[in-house]
């Protein structure tokens, strides 16, 4: 079985995966997930824009905050048995938005610090049936 994105249209796969966002054509404010067009209006309260373009967001960002999961999330989340805690990172992208995601396989909260640079990767979730985006810490000196 070939894994497919857990949420179609939210990210690309391949060698250089990217999150797919929307940008208001009036004020250039970017959004993720891509739902602004469905709403029919720009979420920027100072903008009256109603047209949006799909854009690939930056693949690298900076850890804004992070935590770990010490309890198994309730359904409909599907967790591996036995449950193993995993890291979550809130990453600020150059577009000025913060995107939450799990930390890449092999990394945890002890590998993170606020302000460090991370890169988007796409990995199979625990069952291997779906692909999800995750944040992978970059080596010191790697720019966002």
Entry keywords:
globular; 5-stranded mixed barrel; about 35% strand; ChsH2_C; mainly beta; about 140 residues; 1 helix; OB fold (Dihydrolipoamide Acetyltransferase, E2P); OB-fold domain-containing protein; 9 strands; Thioester_dehydratase-like
What does this molecule look like?
With 144 residues, this protein is an all-beta fold. It has a domain at 60-137: OB fold (Dihydrolipoamide Acetyltransferase, E2P), CATH 2.40.50. It has one helix spanning 36-39, and strands at residues 4-5, 20-24, 30-31, 52-56, 60-68, 87-92, 98-103, 117-124, 130-137. A hairpin with a 5-residue loop joins strand 2 and strand 3.
Provide a count of the helices. Answer: 1
Remind me, CATH topology of the domain at 60-137? OB fold (Dihydrolipoamide Acetyltransferase, E2P)
Shape: globular
Q: How would a crystallographer describe the biggest sheet?
A: 5 strands, mixed, barrel
Strand percentage lies at: 35-45%
CATH architecture of the domain at 60-137: Beta Barrel
Number of strands: 9
Average pLDDT score: 90
Q: What share of the residues lie within helices?
A: under 10%
Weakly predicted, low-confidence segments: none
H/E element sequence: EEEHEEEEEE
Give the spatial strand order of the biggest sheet.
5-6-7-9-8
Brief sketch in words of this structure:
The strands form two sheets. This protein has a five-stranded mixed β-barrel. Strands 3-2-4 form a three-stranded antiparallel sheet, with no helix packed on it. The protein has one helix at residues 36-39; strands at residues 4-5, 20-24, 30-31, 52-56, 60-68, 87-92, 98-103, 117-124, 130-137. The N and C termini lie far apart (34 Å).
């Amino acid at each position: 079985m070939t894994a497919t994105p857990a949420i179609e249209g939210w990210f690309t796969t391949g060698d250089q995966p990217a999150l797919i966002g929307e940008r208001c054509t009036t004020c250039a404010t970017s959004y993720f997930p891509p739902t602004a067009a469905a709403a029919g209006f720009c979420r920027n309260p100072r903008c009256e824009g109603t047209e949006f373009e799909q854009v690939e967001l930056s693949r690298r960002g900076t850890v804004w905050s992070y935590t770990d999961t010490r309890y198994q999330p309730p359904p409909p989340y599907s967790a591996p048995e036995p449950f193993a805690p995993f890291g979550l990172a809130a990453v600020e992208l150059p577009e000025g938005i913060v995107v939450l995601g799990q930390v890449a396989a092999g990394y945890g909260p002890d590998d993170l610090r606020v302000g460090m640079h991370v890169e988007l990767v796409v990995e199979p979730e625990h069952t291997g049936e779906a692909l999800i985006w995750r944040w992978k810490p970059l080596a010191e000196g790697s720019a966002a």
